[in-house]
Amino acid sequence: MKDRKDIIEIKNLNKWYGDFHVLKDINLTIKKGEIIVVCGPSGSGKSTLIRCINYLEQFQEGSITVDGIDLINDVKKIKAIREEVAMVFQHFNLFPHLTILDNLTLAPIWVRKMPRKEAEAMAMKYLERVGIANQAHKYPNQLSGGQQQRVAIARSLCKNPKIMLFDEPTSALDPEMVAEVLDVMIELAREDKTMVCVTHEMGFAKKVADRIIFMDAGQIVEENTPEEFFQNPESDRLKLFLEQILSH
Amino acid sequence: MATYEKKQERKAPSNTKGATFWIRENLFSSPLNVALTLLGVMILFWIIPPFVKWAYINANFAGSTREDCVSGGACWVFIRMKIDMFMYGFYPSDLRWRVNSVYGLFFVLIVAFKYLKSPLLKVALAHIYFIAGFFLVHGGFFGMETVPTDKWGGLMLTIMVAAVGIVAAFPLGVLLALGRASHLPIIKSISVTYIEFIRGVPLITILFMSSIILPLFFPEGMTFDKLLRALIGIAMFEAAYIAENIRGGLQSIPKGQYEAADAIGLSYWQKMFLVILPQALKVAIPNLVGVSIALFQDTTLVLIIGLFDLLAMVRLSAADSYWLGYETEGYVFVTFIFWFFCYSMSNFSQKLEKRFNTNLR
Asked: For chain A: N or C, fewer Cβ within 10 A?
């Protein structure tokens, strides 16, 4: 992992919502192919942090560089970064007026100007991978939550992104459906994609993460390999957090 | 290990459904409801039989003169003799085939819509239809005789004013709604000012302005068709209302839809036209049809700037000294025509809603 090049570089990132200081001096470097899990109590700024990476949130200070592209408020640069970074949302955010297949082919056809036939073939390939190819002509609301999230993952794969961001992908799901989504994510983690996942699925973190980042009150409190993270937490805040989520 | 047996499904108890249950629940559920039901039935008995007697049983259908109306019921002969006026106004009778062919082409358009998939082609075709329709009715090319717009009238004018008003106002309304939802302060304030100004002024005022005040600003000798001026005024007026209805639809779209569209890399216009507007318009269908129905009825206001729509034609015909005293028949006829069109639009709206409903289970 050491010899790989950096793909995301976040330097001195600061962000405010009005007067509320959400992100405080965030410094984080992520290497190509790394799997990062970000956890922390709610309101700690972890979602905000990953949403800054594809510019869904603007920030006031600091810099983010994604695959050599400086993230500034410039339509072309934002577009270039969004070509490489895909995002999976907590509430799936599929487009309810389009079929599953059309959800997947929308960006390839309109952004990458791919011929429809080709886009559909590619979409079917990804649907196959997440195990929903037989539902391609249904509408999102006809699918279960777990299936919708798998479609959302397939949709983000259609860009063939270098980086995948996951914003609490399993927290809106029924307990019985969490596993099917995590299975797809574990599958992805085995490939050469860079993944940044905000999640509380500690089992997932233990299994696939290269590093786990713990955030509290807008700052990075600790970052470590999974073994160290769970066995030797340094700060009291992390000890308390682990106690809370692992004691049940 | 505990085992359990799957329970069989049963039908709902029979005394909780069916017609008798419905009647008992909705019409006779309390003493007050019983009284209201009886009162309602009484009112219906009081209105319907005399009306049927007047409009059908005692009515006169045959004949062609006033003298044929002797039985005391409705004199539908009057409508029959004047129907051409009601439909076409003063449009020359030997040229009415042009208007009829525009009506006919409408059905061709509908059939073409069924077979066309691309929305862009549909919009283009609809615009071609309206422009071609206008020129066909107007004439003045290929040796076709020109029929100036002051000869246009009756139902034909009503339909044209309403249809052109809606079709021309719709794109402007969409842009205004997007403008009002925009984050760019200048675009937003222009849109808000326009919408709030127009909504603060009655349609009559706009019609007066477009027909009387506007020409004062034109250079000497420049004339501008009166109907066209009215149409522009109506389209500008309707655009504000359409914009507000679409804004309502836009506000119902969750933020996640915008974020997902951004995240997959769509540009602003792609995001709006491919993701947001299709959903927002679907939500806005009932209100947009409401606006269309209101406009269809509001077209009667063009009378005050000297255009003769259906209602104006009926009033004019009823003032004909030979047919004096048959306004009632005329107004019942107008009522029916307006009801027919508005009810069709309302029905169409429900069909659209069903067709675009993707919240299937």
From this structure: C
ipTM of this complex > 0.90? yes
Q: Are A196 and A166 in contact (CB under 8 A)?
A: yes
A-chain CB neighbours of B279 within 8 Å are: 95-97
Phi, psi values for residue A223, rounded to 5°: -140, 135
For chain B, percent helix, then strand, then coil, each to nearest 5? 75, 0, 20
Nearest CA among A63, A107, A100, A106 for reference residue A85: A107
Instruction: Please answer whether residues B161 and B302 qualify as being in contact, where contact means their C-beta atoms are separated by less than 8 angstroms.
Output: yes
Tens digits of per-residue pLDDT, B23-74?
888 888 889 999 999 999 999 999 999 999 988 888 888 888 888 888 778 8
Write the DSSP assignment of A60-108 as a string of letters. SEEEEEETTEE--S-HHHHHHHHHHEEEE-TT----TTS-HHHHHHHHH
User: Torsion over CA of B217, B218, B223 and B229, rounded to 10 degrees?
Assistant: -50
Global pTM?
0.85
Only one residue has tokens 């042009």, namely B98
DSSP letter string, B127-149:
HHHHHHHHHHHH--STTPPP--G
Instruction: Quote helix, strand, coil % in chain A, to nearest 5.
Output: 40, 25, 35
Give chain A's end-to-end CA distance (angstroms, integer).
34
CB contacts of B265 in chain A (<8 Å) are: 79, 82-83, 107, 111, 159
Listed in sequence order, the DSSP H helices in B90-140 are: 96-115, 119-138
Residue owning tokens 């009162």: B39
- Per the CB < 8 A criterion, the answer to whether B346 and B287 are in contact is no
Q: What value does the CA radius of gyration of chain A take, rounded to a whole number of Å?
A: 18
Nearest to A92 by CA among B116, B121, B259: B259
Measured between alpha carbons, how far is A89 from A149 in angstroms, rounded to an integer?
8
pLDDT digits (tens, 9 = 90+) for A13-35: 999 999 999 999 999 999 999 99
Q: What's the length of chain A?
A: 248
Determine the residue type at B263.
A
Which of A91, A187, A110, A193 has its CA nearest to residue A148?
A: A91
B359 part of contact set with chain A, CB < 8 Å? yes
What DSSP designation does A14 have? E
Token digits for B323? 């047919």
The β-bridge relationship of strands A194-198 and A35-39 is: parallel
Side by side, which strands form the sheet with A85-88? A85-88, A163-167, A194-198, A35-39, A211-216, A219-224
Does the beta carbon of B264 lie under 8 angstroms from any beta carbon of chain A?
yes
B260 touches A: beta carbon within 8 Å: yes
B277 touches chain A (CB under 8 A): no
Structure-block tokens of residue A163 = 């980086």
